[in-house]
Amino acid sequence: MEFIYQFIWIVPFLPFLTSLLIGLNLFFFPKSTKSLRYRWAILSILVLIIVMIFSCTILWQQLVDNSIHRYLWSWIFDKQSDFKIGFLIDPLTSIMLMLITSVAVLVMIYSDSYMSHDQGYVRFFAYLSLFTASMLGLVLSPNLIQVYIFWELVGMCSYLLIGFWFTRPSAANACQKAFITNRIGDFGLLLGILGFYWLTGSFEFETLFKRFNDLLLHQEVNLYFASFCALLLFLGPIAKSAQFPLHVWLPDAMEGPTPISALIHAATMVAAGIFLIARLFPLFQALPNIMNIISWVGAITALLGATIALAQKDLKKGLAYSTMSQLGYMMLALGIGSYQAGLFHLITHAYSKALLFLGSGSVIHSMESIIGYSPNKCQNMSFMGGLRKFMPITGTTFLIGTFSLCGIPPFACFWSKDAIITDSWLHFSGLGWIAWITAGLTAFYMFRIYFLTFEGNLRVNSNKIFFSYPVSIWGDLELNNIKLEFISKNLKDQFDPFFEINKHDNKNLFFEKEQYVYPKESDNKMLFTLIVLTLPTFFIGFLGAPFPQGQPGFDLLSQWLYPLFKNSSEIISGNWLEFGVNAINSLSIVFSGIFIAFILYGPISFFPQNLEKDFEFLLKKNLNPFFSIIYNWSYFRGYIDTYYDIVFVKGIRLLAQFILFFDEWIIDGIVNGFGILTIFGGESTKYLEGGRISFYLFGLIFGISLLLFVIFF
Question: Does 596 share its domain with 641?
Answer without folding.
Answer: no
